[in-house]
Amino acid sequence: MLLLFPDALYDLDNISCSTFLYFQKETVGITLQPSISMPLGGCDPFAFYQYVQQRNPKWQLLLMALFDGWSNGSSRFHETSQSLMPFKDIGLLKIIHLSYSRTEATLENTKEFIKSIGLSYDNLFKMIDLDQAFQELMSHLFYEMFLELYGSREDIKDRSARKVDFKALYDYCGTFFNKYTIEEALVNCYFFRFYNTQGKLDTVLLSNEGLIPILSATADLHTDETKAVGISHNDSTDMVAWEIFRQILSPYLDTIDKETRVSMTADLIVNHKDKVTKLKNKCWKLAEDFKGEKNLNALVANISKYISVYVESDIQALLKLDGKTFQSVRDKIFADQKSWISLGGFIISAYSDQPFITAATSLAVLSNVLSKSISTAQENKKAISQSDYSIIYNLKKS
Questions:
Q1: Is the pLDDT of residue 111 over 80?
Q2: CB-based contacts of 268: which residues, under 8 Å, 6+ apart?
Q3: Which of 92, 97, 129, 225 fits a disulfide with 87 by CB distance 3.0 to 4.6 angstroms?
Q4: Under DSSP, is residue 11 helix (H, G, I), strand (E, B) or coil?
Q5: What is the Cα gyration radius of the chain?
Q6: Are strands 203-206 and 2-5 parallel, antiparallel or unpaired?
């Protein structure tokens, strides 16, 4: 199973649906939102909120912002989870409940972990997923700290709210919000999951490309483990092939409405596996051809050349686009040069001795979405059946 990590999925735009196509032989796991644990402890956060309102402390506005962020993120998570049900129905998706510590002692350890990364809180705040951070902070206060202060309930199956004197929790929150700004609190709690699972996961799908600098920093902290684990040639080629696959397919798949893209993807997985395999094989060939290139500028130019030679003509012939409608697939796919320069660096790193996205024993696969749109015209069924890019036709036809 490939686990989407470290964040729960709050927006389908945070993962390309091409991920599910490429890894259809492996189950993709997405985690429940961290605050899912709160009912297990018996805390009623809304009753506590009323308790705070009656006392009107200076930090009440911070608590209000926390509740707003938590509520909005929870709504987005549930909406996204519902949209992914077609993947679950065909056995491609699993929902995982990760269990790990968010106690006060773990908070101190997490702060030390953050210090070891060597990046400022301002920079880290820009990198984290705020939906996830709000969820983690809520779980820290209203699950872990609630249990520390009031103990666990006798019946672990009981999900009802417990009646307690909130003064102890109120005092802790007062100390907490006087000690940290909301930004610092969110950053500290965001890294609960990251800290607790260091070196404990195998291959994961990275949910947030903004974390790559952090993965690079933590890889430096675990140089010996990273060298010991190593990455096979096949794994390196697979990473590169996947990224090429995504960059080619995303402009067709990830620009349509969310409900349609999920249903299309599920249909391709169930009914057109051979076409997906054709495209994957072509991407593997391209990945092999990129092996050994160390010059970033040359590599980016070669990518452009290969896409032009091996992709543009096939797609144009496949979709039967006239020159005016086509408007150069290459120009559209390569409109964002930064994305392709990033891909070039990724490819060089993937074939080097120390891939920069390897942290200890975890291998993160880049899964950001490049959104470009390309128009299509009429199709030719015979050409479609013979083309490596026939999968793209199915998307546009639907």
A1: yes
A2: 21, 275, 276, 391, 394, 395
A3: 92
A4: coil
A5: 24
A6: parallel
The whole-angstrom separation of Cα 187 and Cα 127 is: 9
Output b/e per residue, 123-146; b: 16+ Cβ within 10 A: ebbebbbebbbbbbbbbbbbbbbb
Q: With 50 as the cut, is the pLDDT of residue 127 above it?
A: yes
Specify whether the backbone of 98 is left (phi greater than 0), alpha (psi in -120 to 50) or beta. beta
The DSSP secondary structure of 158-216, one letter per residue, reads --SPP---THHHHHHHHHHHHHS-HHHHHHHHHHHHHHHTTTT--EEEES-GGGHHHHH
* Single-letter code of the amino acid located at 348: I
Q: How far apart are CA 371 and CA 369, in angstroms?
A: 6
Helices 390-397 and 258-271 pack at an angle, to 10 degrees, of 130
Helix axes 296-306, 337-350, angle to 10 degrees: 110
Structure tokens at 197: 């699972």
CA distances from 375 to 28, 245, 256, 266 (A): 31, 19, 12, 22
Residue 322 identity (one-letter amino acid): D
pLDDT tens track for 383-397: 334 556 555 545 555
Instruction: Evaluate if residue 271 carries a pLDDT over 80.
Output: yes
Return the structure tokens found at 165.
């004197």
Q: What separation, in Å, do the N-terminal and C-terminal C-alpha atoms of the chain show?
A: 29
Partners of 364 in the β-ladder: 204
Degrees, nearest 5: CA angle 109-196-75: 110
Strand partners for 95: 30
Residue type at 30 in one-letter notation: I
Q: Check pLDDT > 60 for residue 172.
A: yes
DSSP label at residue 13:
G
What length is written for the chain? 398
Q: Which residues contact 240 (CB under 8 A, 6 or more apart)?
A: 287, 290, 346, 347, 350, 351
Quick: pLDDT tens for 319-378: 444 555 555 445 555 555 555 555 555 555 555 544 333 322 222 332 222 222 122 222
Nearest to 138 by CA among 81, 83, 84, 64: 64
Query: Which SS3 state, helix, strand or coil, does residue 255 take?
Result: coil
Q: Where are the beta strands (DSSP E) in 41-147?
A: 93-96
Given a contact cutoff of 8 angstroms between Cβ atoms, the answer to whether 130 and 8 are in contact is no
Is pLDDT above 70 for 115? yes
| Separation of alpha carbons 53 and 56, rounded Å | 5
